[in-house]
Write a structure and sequence with these properties.
- The chain has 3 domains: 6-81, no CATH class; 94-181, Periplasmic binding protein-like II (D-Maltodextrin-Binding Protein, domain 2); 195-283, Helix Hairpins (Orthogonal Bundle), CATH 1.10.287.1080.
- By secondary structure, the chain is an alpha/beta fold.
- It has 11 helices and 10 strands.
């Protein structure tokens, strides 16, 4: 078992109390704890581990995901701790698209959306979906009271974390779409790079076997369609990179990984075989 020398805890009020209970339950009660803002913890854990410390951290899943979207990191979720918040709309903090029920999100048009810089990349990823559907979205960054920004006519929509929904209701807003549910996560150095890809491959296999109408099954039964989609996604990822829009690159890369995983499954090639080849090449380069 790895011995951790530091545990970084969030000072954010809601996260802090639950995090203290979590570290005691996980057996880290006697380890040195340091408190920082939840949004800073992933970066600080990364820096401490790079400097030789054995550090782990506890933060919100949304904050960790935001960090991973913008940074190449060796960190991973070691354990997810369910939030289970009484009185919360979804039982846990949830990033939602908020606005008036009369606001139209379908068809072509232009809307403005207030986003918190703390969730800039998560927000951009979601807004990219709206843009792909033909909607032009102007982003307005606001550090707090995003619901008030909509109420005062500063923005048509906002992406904000909903807990009890009190601020939303006070401003007469509704939840137009749920974007990201967040539990508490224990983060630290990941040990194996192929785990996430294995999980994706298993999910595709299950979808194809359990749902006769699934898109994955359709792809696996039609190699020409699968190869056509793979070709399309390659070009779309290249276009996104040339445009320099990181959120679109993330979106297109995710699509490409899906189709690559489907192709491996169709060909009967395991994820481990691919990673073994990468390891072989890496070892060969080291010898040379």
């Amino acid at each position: 078992m790895v011995h951790f020398t530091k545990v970084l805890l969030p000072k954010n009020s809601g996260l802090r109390d639950r995090s203290l209970k979590a570290i005691k339950k996980e057996g880290f009660g006697n380890t040195e704890t340091i408190e920082f803002r939840g949004e800073d913890i992933p970066k600080l854990v990364d820096e401490l581990n790079s400097a030789g410390s054995k550090a782990i951290g506890i933060t919100g899943e949304d904050l960790f995901t935001e960090y991973c979207l913008g940074t190449q990191t060796s960190l991973a979720i070691l354990k997810k701790i369910p939030w289970r918040g009484a009185g919360m709309v979804f039982g846990k903090p949830t990033l939602c698209l908020l606005g008036y029920e009369t606001t139209k999100l379908e068809g072509k048009g232009t809307v403005s959306c207030a986003v918190n810089p703390k969730f800039r990349l998560l927000s951009e990823n979601y807004l990219e979906k709206l843009r792909r559907n033909g909607l032009s979205v102007e982003v307005k960054e606001v550090n707090g009271n995003l619901e008030r920004a909509v109420e005062q006519g500063i923005a048509d929509l906002c992406l904000d974390v909903v807990c009890t929904g009190k601020a939303m209701r006070e401003c007469g807003l509704s939840i137009l779409e749920k974007v990201f549910e967040s539990d508490i996560v224990l983060i630290g150095e990941k040990q194996e790079n192929s785990f996430e890809m294995k999980g994706l491959a298993n999910a595709l296999r299950e979808s194809a076997s359990s749902n006769p109408k699934s898109f994955t099954r359709k792809l696996l039964s039609n190699k020409s369609l699968l190869c056509k989609k793979l070709n399309e996604e390659c070009f779309e990822l290249i276009e996104a990179a040339l445009e320099g829009r990181k959120s679109k690159v993330v979106w297109e890369a995710a699509d490409l990984l899906y189709f690559v995983s489907a192709l491996l499954l169709e060909q009967g090639v395991s994820v481990d075989a691919v990673f073994n080849e990468l390891r072989r090449r890496n070892n060969e380069k080291r010898r040379n």
